[in-house]
Each structure stands twice: as structure tokens, then as C-alpha cells.
Amino acid sequence: MTDTSTPPRPLEGLRVIDLTRALAGPYATLLLAGLGAEVIKIEDPRGGDLARENSPYVGRDGVSIERMHDDDVSISHLSRARGKKGVSLNFKAPGAQTVFADLCRTADIVVENFTAGTADRLGIGYAVAREANPGIIYCSLSGFGADAPEGGKAMDVIIQALSGAMYTSGAPDAPPVRMGIPIADMLAPVFAVIGILAALEQRHRSGVGQHVDVSMLGALTSFVAIENWSALAAAGMPARTGLTVQRLSPFGVFECADGYVAIVAVHEKLAQGLFRAMRQPDLAADPRFATRDSRVANAPALEAAITAWSRTLAVDEVVARLEAEGVPVAPVRHPEEALSDPRVMGRGETMPIAHPRYPHQSELRTAGIPIRFSAASTGFDATLPIGIGDHNRDVFRDLLGYDEERLRALGDAGVI
Amino acid sequence: MTDTSTPPRPLEGLRVIDLTRALAGPYATLLLAGLGAEVIKIEDPRGGDLARENSPYVGRDGVSIERMHDDDVSISHLSRARGKKGVSLNFKAPGAQTVFADLCRTADIVVENFTAGTADRLGIGYAVAREANPGIIYCSLSGFGADAPEGGKAMDVIIQALSGAMYTSGAPDAPPVRMGIPIADMLAPVFAVIGILAALEQRHRSGVGQHVDVSMLGALTSFVAIENWSALAAAGMPARTGLTVQRLSPFGVFECADGYVAIVAVHEKLAQGLFRAMRQPDLAADPRFATRDSRVANAPALEAAITAWSRTLAVDEVVARLEAEGVPVAPVRHPEEALSDPRVMGRGETMPIAHPRYPHQSELRTAGIPIRFSAASTGFDATLPIGIGDHNRDVFRDLLGYDEERLRALGDAGVI
User: Fold this and answer.
1) Longest pairwise C-alpha distance within chain A
2) What are A388-404's pLDDT values in tens digits?
3) pLDDT tens digits, residue range B203-242?
4) CA-based torsion, A141, A143, A149, A150: positive or negative
5) Which keywords label this protein (chains A, B) (predicted)?
6) ipTM over 0.90
7) Domains of chain A and any CATH numbers
8) Which helix (H) or strand (E) holds B169?
9) Which of B142, B228, B310, B316 to substitute to test the interface with A, most A CBs within 10 Å?
């Protein structure tokens, strides 16, 4: 007998109060939602998450740079608010803190990514949440850490610059390289989720929650720090080496007639396979290329020989010839092609998104949950706050038990 | 009364059997160790983790490209094996599977990063671990997922090429950019830790463990997928834009006399601040730059004006002037400088490492745990397998209860 029901998601039964905006915070709560937590996104009734204003939009006429119709939705919002419920709450209105405390009492986790100090000033910081619910795990995502003196907006490009990451890519004497993936915005939330889940594990022992504090600068700098930059410098080895790494030669990215390929032929057997694929097996006997040490010593000549060959052939041909010789090789693909790789789509690592009302107006793909479980599923509930406060009734009435009169009063007073 | 004792680490009491090698897998178990789990690293007695052979090394004479003395240690190993115990076990020797099963019975988590299918073939796959301990959470890290047909070594540069990431950085028509951070090797383990902790949370409900399966290609492609590449293309907006993003102009990295700075002045108030910092406040009235839309439409002219100014000044001067106007700005720093930022060191996001016997022979820094907890600490026990099997007695005798005779027999048979 086969069980055809969908397995549970690993974080089912946990509830998240989501105070986040823009990218870093919403990506953290997106991961929690995809792992099965119930996420309640709070937005200011007077405008909501700024990501709602990010171009491009999608709607009845497909993708557009400007908003054409009232029900056009920013693709950023469509992708980042997946699976979340949306309620409105104006923290500057009297009474909002009571509503926030009521939400905390029902929840396990709070996530915020205001500038350091702002949540406390708004009366929705960790101290307030813990007072309402000592079990709460309260995660703050900020540019430089919750303990940083205030000021200094932490945009992705600012953090990339400070972290050293921009001087890890590119040729040795070239300008720095801005990474096209918003890596500072994306990496901190991944560590935030680790921190939240680790605090949950500790709560099973201690019975109480705590504050989890992740810095964008710290998360990205820790990644930069895995390479031994100062040791390489101390040993006189170049650290920033562009498309290839000559201390491992042949290793890196090489030009073809119609694009680029990545090739790794560090070891003896692989180098010989490469030379056969080049139809120049004699190179294996050439004293410049006969041993690993000599290949490294003569890396510029070796790279020139490879490029002189690869440049005459299409990417597909170079890949086919090297694969036939068992040499690790891959085409350098563009994002659109990579996102549509059947392997990646089949595992849910990228996923389709569409406007709920106009599902056939585009072929958009976005980030999925890149983790597979043998006894659990991942994925997003079919819920999304298209309008601000779309789920006010589900949350304030059905979850918190507020009656119609109270809801009306809160609405009239501009609290929700 | 102040409690001056160190708070517990969040994952204390959990035990990890670590079958990993190279970078991706060891970084996953490094994060678990830093969060307080006990990690037992298993190495083949006939050679151990290949990262032990990574140049540069550190020893009594400081940092060197080649191993000069018997007790020189690869900096890769020093940094990745921190806080781990090390035992030897040759899985190809008869009897090794019994030892592995005994280890699984004492453990909560197993992590491996063999090529897909290899762990099963060696008799140390999930099925074997679960048979020994149904509560075990068994995490596989691989290039393309545990379900991928075999073959194809998944080096970082191969995965970077396939993921589309290389065509997100750099100028629109420039060659692809290899990221200098081994981002494919680093990102998959972060998701592996999320998967492991989510499965732990589910185990509190279900009582049983499961298999967690993370693909390097999937993890990195999901990051690439957060930007709406195909929507930008459909809307006719360039996606790959080099050092600046003209659709947000002025935004990006600009040249100074002695380096580069990142500047973000997207909004009205910030653009005016920038013009004042440039001592050209009249630009705010220039019809080309007077509104956000006009600045975007005339982005090349605006960037030329900024660069003509910034190029004449030192980085420090540009930063000081923009900070005085409240405009987000940062110097583009080199990794060495970034790793030594007092903010980052103070939060343990980068940490010193040293050879245990020659602690003063170098000033090396490496990755820390970029998460701060209010009721927990992070960090690494002062344990490290300098030699293969350094902790055989602690683990095989004290934890598993093997007696001296059995240890001798296992050693004589080449099992450990």
C-alpha cells in the first residue's frame, strides 16, 4: 500500500510574526514559510513594503516597467511574499503595541530588519515581545549588528564594498567587481534562519526564547574569510586571480567561439585527458606541461595553448570532447538557462511564480527551497497578500479573537 | 548578582558523525561545531582529508607554500577542522561498517559529501545509518543532488558556471566573472545546516530522523533566481550592469584617486546631498538630474559627472564628504582590511587561528559564526585533529566502550 499523501513540512505548527521589508528580512521569512511555518507579514497600512514598488511589474498585460493597472503587482513582491499572510498595523498609532503583543503571544518567532535600534523605539523590540511571551525567538537582521551605533543604511552594495568581497573577483589589477547577485542581502537571512532554528532547538531544553542577532556585514565577511587571503599574501601567492587560478593550472574559465567553459584538469590524469581532447597528446610529454609543478610554473603558456584551441570551437563541442575524456567541464550558462535546468526545476530549487489572477501572462521563475527531505515536503501555501491587510480578518478575528466592533474601531483609528 | 559563566551553546548535547572532505561538507560541520554540537570527523587512515594537502601551510617557521616540517599544518585544515574530534576509519576494510553503525547509535546527525551514490556503495549510506538508529538525521551534500545520475565532479568553478552566477557580475558585454569567494562550496553547506536543524525540529514531533539532501547547483541557482532576470529581459531592462545600476542612478561603485567607493543616492534627498558633497549644488536644478526619472534617463552623463569629481579625491575624502551629507557611502575594502574590522572581530564573525604548537607564528584570521544569541554563546572547543586518528581513544574507547584489545585488533587490521 502506497501512501500518496504529501508529507508534512518540517516547521509545521510554528508561527512567525514578520516585521521585515525589502529583501534581506523577507527572504528569511520566505525560507521559514517554504519549510512550513505560518508567516504573518505586518505592513504599514499607509504604504506597505517598499518592495511593492520595485519595477518590473506583472499583470493582465504581462511584464511591464511601469505599473499600468491597479492590480499589477511587483514581481519582487510576488516572489518574496509567497505563502505569507498579510495584515496591516501602523506601529505609530496608539494601541498598535497591544495588537503586536497579542500576536507575540500566539507566535514562536519574530523577525525584523529595521535599522538597529528602530524596533525598540517603535515599541516592538525584543524586550516587548519577551514580556508578552518568554518563549519568543526574536531575530534582528541589520547592516552591522543589533549592537551597532545607529546610522548608516546597509544596502547590499555598501556591505559588498566593506566586506572585501569586491576585491576577490576579477583580474589582479582590475577595478573591484560588484557581484550581480545581491549576496549581502541574501546571505544574512540564511544565517538568520540557522540562528532561529538553533534557538528553537535550545528552547526545547531551556523552555525559553532569546534574541538572535545577525549582521549583513558579518555574514558576508565570514564568507570572505574562508579563503586565507593574508596567508596567501604572506606566502607570496596571488589571491585575486580573475578567470583562472594559475596555482592550480589548468583551472578556470576559457573562451570558446561562441561563449565560455569552465575546465578543471588539476591532476595528472585529467591534464592528459585535456591534451587528448585538444588532439595534442604530445603536450603531456612537453617538459613545460609534463608534471603538475611544471604546469603551474608555465601556467600562462598552458592557458594560451588551451585558449588557442578552445577559441576555435563551439562551447558544446569543447564540453563534449572533454566529457568524453572524463575531464570536469561545464558551459558557462546565463541565468535564464540555469533557472530552467530540468534538474533544478525538478527539485524545486527554482519555482514558477505568476500573478494569481493572470497566471498565464508570463513565464517567470524564482528561488525555491534548495533542500530535499525524505520524510518532509517543502513549498508555499497558495496565500499572498496582494493588497495590504488582505488577511486582517483571518488573523485579527479568527486567530486573536477580536470581534467586528474592535476591528472596525482599529480600522477607524488608523491602527490597522 | 551577575552570572559570569559562559552561556551554553544552542546545539549542546547533539553529536555529529562527520564523513566530509574538502570544503563544502567540512564547512557544514564547522557551523554545527561552532553552534555547540560535538563533531567527530572520520578520516581514512591511509591519507585523510585532502584539505590537509592544501598550500599554504603554517608551522614553526610561519607561513610557507610548501610543507617544510613534519608538524606543518595546512591552513585549510587548521581552519576547517576547528572544534572537531578526529578518528580514523577505513570504510573499505572489513568490520568498518560495524564501527560506523556503533557511532550512528550514539549520534543525532551524519553529514557526508561524497559524490552521489558513493556512501551507499561504501556501506555507510542513509539506509545503514537508519537501521542502526531510526532517529538519525543524515545529510548528503553533492553537486547535483542525491538523486542525480552519477559522474561529474562538482567543483566550485563548475557549479558557478552552470548556475548562471558568472553572468550576473561584470559589464553587459564583458566575459563572465568567476567569483573569488568559493560561493558554490560555501552556500550548499549553509542550506544543509538549515535542513538538518529543520529535520531536528520535525524529530521533536515525529520521533524519527530522515535524509536531508542538498545540491550545490540547486543552492547557488536558487540564489541567482532571486533576481527577476527573465522579467527584466522581457521588460527591456538590462540585468547585468557592471559596477553601477543605471536604472537606480546614481547607484554603484565609483573610482577615486586611490581606490573606489560605493555610493547610493537613489532618492531625491540623497541626490541633493551628493551634489552638495560634490560642491556642485546647481546639478540639482539641472534638468538632466532634477528628478529621479531624469537622473535614470541621463545616467551615463550623471555617472561621468560623479567620476570626474571622485577621481580627483582620495577615498577617505569622498567618504567623509558624503557621510557629512548623510549619503550612504563606503570604501571598497580589500579582504585583509575587512577581516580585521573591529566590528566584525568583536562579534566573532572572523576569528584568529593558529597552529596549536606555534601560536605566535602568524596573524591569521578565518571565518567565525556570524550569529549572536542573547542566551547562548558560539565558538569552538580547543580540539583539532592535527594527526589522523588523534581522538581514536576518546571516541572508540571512552564513547563506544571498545577495550584495548579490540582497539589493537582494529589497528592491526587497518580498520582504524
Assistant:
1) 88
2) 999 999 999 999 999 99
3) 999 999 999 999 999 999 999 999 988 888 887 888 899 9
4) negative
5) Transferase
6) yes
7) 15-223+343-412 (3.40.50.10540), 246-255+260-331 (3.30.1540.10)
8) none
9) B228
